[in-house]
Amino acid sequence: MKVSRKQVEENRSKVLEAAAMLFRERGLEGIGIADLMKAAGLTHGGFYRQFKSKGDFVVEAVRRAYETSSDEIRERIGAPTGDPFATLVRYYVSEEHRDHPGAGCSLATLAVDASRSEDPALRSFFGTIVSRYLDLLVTIMPGEGVADRRSAAVAALSEMVGAVILSRVVPDPSLSREILDSVADDLLAAAGDEPD
């Protein structure tokens, strides 16, 4: 039975959406094609007709993950009330973000995998993700001058990503919460905001 072009695109989108979530939950090597296609509600034979190579597929799935999480971040910080930087810190360095890696930022879930990858396209895309987040942070960071805001943005992004990674890896819930609280408080204090 021939599948329509529209159905092919819908199936492709389902696969990318499932991969974006599962890669962030389990890592780039943490799921096989058969399990991925099952999660998308499709047969694994369809995978090979939809993607040029596994490398291209991984980059597309990471791109989908980035787009989804960055859209959520932009929506949160774009609220008409409140300080965008404080809003970002409170969301990113939180138990909510820590506890839902499948819906969270690709940097906090997949950057270590990407750093080990020999695929130049994947590494290049992660460089793009870092650059885009830095560009966003520069626009919402308090401070005088672009150079000062850029420096603060590099430090803030590094602290936020590191805090989420460390809070996920420690088995002690108290230490995990302490990591999140300490980093959020430090970032907010450095920005002149009162920590919660």
From TrEMBL:
Keywords, A to Z, come to: DNA-binding, Transcription, Transcription regulation
Q: Which residues form the HTH tetR-type domain?
A: 9-69
Residue spans binding DNA: 32-51
Output the Pfam families linked to this UniProt entry.
TetR_N
Residues annotated as signal peptide: none
Would you say which domain of life the source belongs to?
A: Bacteria
- InterPro entries per the UniProt record, alphabetical: Homeodomain-like_sf, HTH_TetR, Tet_transcr_reg_TetR-rel_C_sf
Q: What protein name applies here? A: HTH-type transcriptional regulator
What species is given as this protein's source?
Answer: Methylobacterium trifolii
